[in-house]
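Same chain as my last thread, 267 residues:
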Amino acid sequence: MSRHKTLFKTAILLLACALILGGCRKDNEFDNRSAEELYAEAKAYLEKNNWRGAVRAYRTLQTRYPFGRYAEQAQLEMAYAFYRASQPELALSTADRFIRMYPAHPNLDYAFYIRGLTNYDQRIGFLEKLMPDRVNDRDQSVALEAFRDFDQLTRRFPDSRYAPDARQRMVYLRNAMSAYELDVAEYYLRRKAYVAAANRARYLLETYPGSPEAGNALVVLNKAYNELDLPELADDALQVLEYNDPEHAYLTGEKEGGFFSKVWPFD
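reply #2:
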């Protein structure tokens, strides 16, 4: 009986060793490859949109060859792979680590660009394609982060190949954030919180000068000041609106289109 037990334990031990060795062979898939070969493997995964395979190859490269140009570039491209794999937290942390470790890297602009894209996509999501007029309903903190990332890119690297796209996205984000502020101001106005409405409208005008929502912010100011029995301030807001946007619907008496008229703009 004891002999059978011994044989059984030996068989279990051999099976466990086989599994461990098999796992090691799988983990060491790239062990015999040079840094250049690992980098080429990761790039091939990227070209095939195999983001997980690319991340695995980049990580192996960084583990086996932690120094040198391939390791530096691997970290940057791994941030892109995480971004495309819809893993924003890992994309941001990897880009941040690259920015801290390689502040003089010639591709530093790309790290800021990846940060901006990651935050931008978190901010916009599917709403940009499905209902672009409702994007401003979302939380604005990530939008502000994306704006700051693109702003750093354009200020520090004005001639970067990514700067033109970053500037266009900044305009979109700026307009979306100003639209959000207008929504909040109008909400306070409907709730008869006139001081809060006026403060929010002023904030919009001061923070986003020239915004497409500037005229509507002046309308909020005019209405709020009238309700607060501040006729001089109300008249000032109206005069600024007349000077800058004489065709505004509030002045002409035209009825503005609602939400569904924007989504379905056909007669």
